[in-house]
Amino acid sequence: MWSSPIYIDHGGRTLLRRSRYVLVIPLQNREFLFVNTFTGAILFGPEEILRILNGVNPEQETSEEVSALVSQGFLTELSPKEETEKAFKSLESIQSLHRDHTLFALIPTYDCNMRCDYCYVSSVFTRDEPWLQRKMTHSQVDAAFKAMETLNPHTRAPIHLLGGEPLISSNYELIEYILTRGTRCDKSFIIVTNGLESSLFLPLLLESKITSLQITVDGIEEIHNRRKKRADGTGSFCQIVESIDQLAEAGFTVYVRVNIDHSTVRTLPSFMEFAHEKGWDQRDNMIYLSPVRHHTPGGCYNFMHNLKKEDLQFLLGDEVLRDVFLRGLGPIAQKLGFVDKWLPQMSYCRSYLSQTWFDPFGDIYLCTDTLGNKEEAVGTYYPEVTFNERFNQWKERTIFNMKSCRHCRYAMICGGGCGNYAAQTKGDLLKPDCEFSNQAVDVYYPLFGKMIQGERKRTQENIPGE
Ligand code: SF4
Ligand code: SF4
User: Fold this and answer.
1) Tens-place pLDDT, residues 226-239
2) Which of 95, 145, 174, 336 is most buried, most CB within 10 Å of its CB?
């Protein structure tokens, strides 16, 4: 916890105190990472800075040091109450930057030709066949496009096609209809596919505007086949690898997502050797590691649910794995401020303000973990666009409306936590879920901080004369 406020008198003119939004993360070699969770400022420095922030021996401080800390928001003249008020006032003015309904996703069907161990919609596979095999009709596709146009005519984000599995042969005519319909109104697509039957779709994909495809490989063949089986129980590794090569050779941007957990981490060097032989690691940012995470406290940003701290050490200790692991951690780096343009988070994930899913039953969902559970749908897009009370609750779920979040110093990196988990475990969509912030302080900030420290050290060692 941060220390109680200590005021510094500078020549009797200004009283400064440590901002209530300052986090202090100890790193190696008595260095610290200082973060201001409201301004997004990130600073590396010695204990001396901590001493200034805590107002110990103020007469020793130079005005330059103090001014630098004031300009980045680490020291402030404001009381904690005034600081909170000022922060929320300025958040109101950037609210419009978090546009409503910017990411649209179509689920042509929940059906899939694979049965992965950890699928985020795995619960739907216990449903009866007619439910599972339900597909969007042409009228629903038309209605979905009309709804997108109404909800946000200005979004330039590609439409996501997911499932279930969008690219299965029995869906061909439907996918053709969707892609043609999209191409007509100049829409591009990101397709998340398992790749098993993507070769059938190649000519169609070549005629459409496909921004990228994402295909998952779970590591070396033995691991992958154990976790990612076809619906008939056989392995899928060889076919998926062939599809990745085929799509990449056809000129598509293909992202290979490698789902990892504690049980697979130590086999990853062998997988990266395989990826190197395939030339996948020579394509820009093609591979990234992504910890398995769904239906957990912290929801989509809980990267630690299936990993242990020693796994992180292992991943970061290997130069090849480190790069692909950090690429996968991009969304977390983004939330915590390790990016050029950081925006304070007013909500935890895209589900509240921008992520909108259209399913084959005419329903709209906002959260991935709720897909297919009709009682969690927030409205319909077919036969007409309607929104229900659940939708209003999701929209309410911001740090403006959750009392404990409003007064929390993690608010602008956290945004209130996973709403779905809060709803499932606390019975209230408007309750906070603090898992992410706990992990941020315990794991993610030290992780990124030590990474940057290491990079700086390597750079200094490579500078002649340093
Ligand atoms: S969910 Fe918890 S940690 Fe996050 S902003 Fe709310 S109170 Fe703070
Ligand atoms: S509320 Fe957001 S973070 Fe939580 S499971 Fe849903 S989409 Fe993921």
Assistant:
1) 988 888 888 899 99
2) 336
